[in-house]
Amino acid sequence: MDSLRVDNGIRKIEVNDAGECIEFSVTNNDFFKAFSDMIQWFEAQDQRQDIKDMKEQGEKVVSEDGEIVNYEALDNVIAIREKISKEVSEKIDAIFGVEASRKIFGGIVPSMYEIADFFEKITPFIEKYTKERNQTISKKYNKGRKGAKS
After folding, report:
1. What is the 3-state secondary structure (H, E, C) of the chain?
2. According to the model, what pLDDT value does residue 68 have?
3. 42 near 119, Cβ under 8 Å?
4. In this predicted structure, what is the pLDDT of residue 81?
5. Tens digit of pLDDT for each residue in 13-56?
6. Phi and psi at residue 14, in whole multiples of 5°?
7. CB–CB of 30/46 below 8 Å?
8. What does the pLDDT read at residue 36?
9. How many CB atoms lie within 10 A of CB 89?
10. What's residue 1's pLDDT?
11. Facing residues of 11 across strands?
12. CA neighbours closer than 13 Å in the CB half-sphere of residue 61
């Protein structure tokens, strides 16, 4: 029986101490578009009205003398942060697979810091795999190639 395997470009990255992995395909252009869109979306969050409201509410959480905590303002800040974090988690799951956020962040709603930390840590892997992919394509489809023998 004949057999062949096509490189589907799936790459796996271990993301926690339990050995769980997230995966993505470096041959899927939709992956790169979705990842780029997510990063741009995340960076644009400062322009959202609810983020501006959160910053305004954040200034009201503790009184100027540091003695009084405004729990209503604190609840508002937490609710806005949680909403944005859940949105990002959904985007991460859509790009890296079901439960990717749980694997990456554990069973919590991640903070903005943790999300930014993930983006900083995953980006070098994506850049590395993209470079490898581009080199493979260049090698495979250059002018000097002679059919299946190259």
Report:
1. CCCCCCCCCEEEEECCCCCCEEEEECCCHHHHHHHHHHHHHHHHHHHCHHHHHHHHHHCCCECCCCCCECHHHHHHHHHHHHHHHHHHHHHHHHHHCCCHHHHHHCCCCCCHHHHHHHHHHHHHHHHHHHHHHHHHHHHHCCCCCCHHHC
2. 72
3. yes
4. 84
5. 999 999 999 999 988 889 989 999 999 988 887 777 766 666 67
6. -70, 135
7. no
8. 92
9. 19
10. 94
11. 24
12. 12
Two structure tokens written together for 35: 């990842």
* Chain mean position to CA 65: 39
Distance, CA of 115 to CA of 79 (rounded, Å): 17
Q: What pTM was estimated for this model as a whole? A: 0.77
- Rounded CA-CA distance 35/122 in Å is 10
Residues of the chain with pLDDT under 50: 150
End-to-end Cα separation, the chain, in angstroms? 25
